[in-house]
């Protein structure tokens, strides 16, 4: 049965971890996978998370199953984070949320639900996008097509061609957007651009769906949800896959959520029951530990403030690294203008490095980025900046 199988290609992002770990050079620098690093190159457990874990460990009384859609206090807290504490939408019954194993788990449930329970057969993703989007949607049986997004010459959103492509998409298709901190480019639509995109969705009747994996890493929790909130207010239907991997640093706890919005409570209830059938057939019900941490923190005002402070620290450090990176590249003699990197949001930047430059950086200098040229700015520190920029300048020369 298995003898005819050929080996699958290594994952373009997670596959790099093995090569990086096996690299014995002590000065190696990891700018590949999207994980936050502090100034000491560590991915710390947030203090608020540790506190929540201590609290939960003392009080936990059972390991019995969670419901199919997960922990209710987590799901309601997720809705408030997505749409705002006092959002009138939350009183309508139109919004339903299921806890999911990470943002990827949420995307997969979204994909299965679309492919098996709706008429959607095709989903459009930005070019470029996170490579796993293609895999998740294709594996669920959807055809994946691309709309234009990025102008590699100006390093900006190619808004005119984006709108042109979105205007050609017909009703019955789904279109995926990154809620904020676009992965891999770090370039997001402005508020006005989100509104224009929403107008096209309303006019053409395609289904907007969101991947919101970096809320809090762009500007702040509210501004980063602008696109999602605007669509939630103006579209009859919406799906949102959200993740707590990055903003709570809960990567290996796999904490995410899938949120559905429908025209009214009745439709939402029925559609959500179908989402639950997808979950039941997939992993039955979600794990509890990570969701309990998030629910505890988000539902306790003091803990929530502590979390927001820690999230702000992470965001501001990345922002400082962006500026220092641009400045140091210039000081080391880069002839290219990299100022665009300081303007982008979140962890990632599309550096413009070619695949062969990426491979030279990896082989000759021990610097790891994704082959597409995507760099994780969160992997930069005051200590590694000089070597990093010197190496990049040499490779660019
Ligand atoms: C990334 O894009 O590096 C992260 O979202 C991690 C992953 O799963 O690819």
Automatic annotation (TrEMBL):
Keywords: Aminotransferase, Pyridoxal phosphate, Transferase. One of its GO terms (biological process) is L-phenylalanine biosynthetic process from chorismate via phenylpyruvate. Pfam families: Aminotran_1_2. One of its GO terms (molecular function) is L-aspartate:2-oxoglutarate aminotransferase activity. The keyword Transcription does not apply. Residues 27-392 form the Aminotransferase class I/classII large domain. Its cofactor is pyridoxal 5'-phosphate. One of its GO terms (cellular component) is cytosol. Its EC number is 2.6.1.-. SUPFAM superfamilies: PLP-dependent transferases. Belongs to the class-I pyridoxal-phosphate-dependent aminotransferase family. Homodimer. This is Aminotransferase. It comes from Orbus hercynius.
């Amino acid at each position: 049965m298995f003898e005819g199988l050929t080996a699958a290609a290594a994952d373009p992002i997670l596959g790099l971890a093995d090569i990086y770990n096996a690299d014995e050079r002590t000065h190696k620098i990891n700018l590949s996978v999207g994980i936050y690093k502090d100034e000491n190159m560590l991915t710390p457990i947030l203090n608020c998370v540790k506190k929540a874990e201590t609290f939960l460990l003392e009080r936990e009384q059972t390991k019995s199953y969670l419901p199919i859609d997960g922990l209710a206090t987590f799901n309601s807290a997720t809705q408030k984070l997505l749409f705002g504490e006092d959002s009138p939408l939350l009183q309508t019954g139109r919004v339903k949320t299921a806890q999911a194993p990470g943002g990827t788990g949420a995307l997969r449930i979204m994909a299965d639900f679309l492919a098996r329970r709706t008429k959607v057969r095709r989903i459009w993703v930005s070019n470029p996008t996170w490579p796993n989007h293609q895999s998740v949607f294709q594996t669920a049986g959807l055809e994946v097509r691309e709309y234009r997004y990025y102008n590699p010459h100006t390093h900006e959103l190619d808004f005119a061609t984006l709108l042109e492509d979105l205007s050609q998409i017909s009703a019955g298709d789904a279109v995926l957007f990154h809620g904020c901190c676009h992965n891999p480019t770090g370039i997001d639509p402005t508020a006005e651009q989100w509104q224009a995109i929403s107008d096209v969705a309303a006019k053409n009747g395609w289904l907007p769906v969101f991947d919101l994996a970096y809320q809090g890493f762009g500007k702040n929790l509210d501004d980063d949800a602008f696109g999602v909130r605007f669509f939630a207010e103006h579209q009859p239907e919406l799906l949102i896959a959200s993740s707590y991997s990055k903003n709570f640093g809960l990567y290996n706890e796999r904490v995410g959520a899938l949120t559905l919005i429908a025209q009214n409570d009745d439709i939402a209830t029925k559609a959500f029951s179908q989402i639950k059938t997808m979950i039941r057939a997939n992993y039955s019900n979600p794990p509890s530990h990570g969701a309990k941490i998030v629910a505890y923190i988000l539902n306790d005002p003091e803990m929530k403030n502590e979390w927001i402070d820690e999230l702000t620290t992470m965001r501001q450090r990345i922002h400082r690294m962006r500026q220092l990176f641009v400045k140091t590249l210039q000081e080391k003699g880069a002839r290219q203008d990299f100022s665009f990197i300081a303007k982008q949001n979140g962890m990632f930047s599309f550096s413009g490095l070619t695949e062969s430059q990426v491979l030279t950086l990896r082989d000759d200098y021990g610097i790891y980025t994704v082959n597409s040229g995507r760099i994780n700015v969160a992997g930069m520190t005051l200590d590694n900046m000089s070597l990093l920029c010197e190496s990049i300048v040499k490779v660019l020369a």
